[in-house]
Amino acid sequence: MLKLYGLANCDSCRRARRTLEGRGLAVEMIDLRRLAERGELDDALLTRLAAERDWQELLNRRSSAWRQLDQASRDGIDRDRALTLMREQPTLIRRPLLDSGNAILIGAEVAHYGD
Questions:
Q1: Residue 114: band (very low, low, confident or very high) from pLDDT cuts 50, 70, 90
Q2: Rounded CA gap, 73 and 75, in Å?
Q3: What is the pLDDT of residue 6?
Q4: Exposure pattern of 5-33 as b/e (b: 16+ CB <10 Å)?
Q5: 13 has catalytic annotation
Q6: 61: helix, coil or strand?
Q7: pLDDT tens column, 79-88
Q8: Model confidence over 29-76: pLDDT tens digits?
Q9: What's the pLDDT at 96?
Q10: How far apart are CA 12 and CA 110, in angstroms?
Q11: Which of 38, 65, 83, 97 could pair with 91 in a Cys bridge, judged by C-beta atoms 3.0 to 4.6 Å apart?
Q12: How many CB atoms neighbour CB 108 within 10 A?
């Protein structure tokens, strides 16, 4: 089963889910915000994602959460700080994010899975 990480109220995530399910693929939607609220958005998951993809690809620099960070936090960001911020503020993770078991796809790449 494919794991689609995103936010319940994210239009791109809902579109990606519909597209994948429309291709007959089984998709488990995982809300990053709810995962964080339950304390399940842990370092192990983020480290695994960052091992598959560069942490800079995972970091959503277009989000309002990113713009609300102070300039010093944004300027001095490194991998460890980015992963900590993503754990604390899941809206900093680019979405949709698809874990196929073989690869991690981010954003527009998700729509092409299974083509």
A1: confident
A2: 6
A3: 95
A4: bbbeebebbbebbebbeeeebebebbbbb
A5: no
A6: coil
A7: 999 999 999 9
A8: 999 999 999 989 988 889 999 999 999 999 999 999 999 999 988 998
A9: 96
A10: 10
A11: 65
A12: 10
Q: How many domains does the chain have?
A: 1
Question: Alpha helix locations (H) across 38-78?
Answer: 43-52, 55-58, 64-68, 71-75
CA dist., res. 111 & res. 115, Å (int): 9
User: Counting beta carbons within 10 angstroms of the beta carbon of residue 115, is it exposed (0 to 12), middle (13 to 18) or buried (19 or more)?
Assistant: exposed
CA-to-CA distance for 115 and 113, rounded, in angstroms? 6
Six-digit token string for 26? 């089984």
Structure tokens at 10: 């994210």
Residue tagged active-site, from 10, 65, 69, 111 = 10
Which domain range does residue 9 map to? 2-112
Distance CA 97, CA 106 (A): 5
Nearest to 42 by CA among 10, 107, 99, 90: 90
pLDDT at position 89 is 93
A 10 A CB-CB count for 97 gives: 24
Query: What amino acid occupies position 44?
Result: A
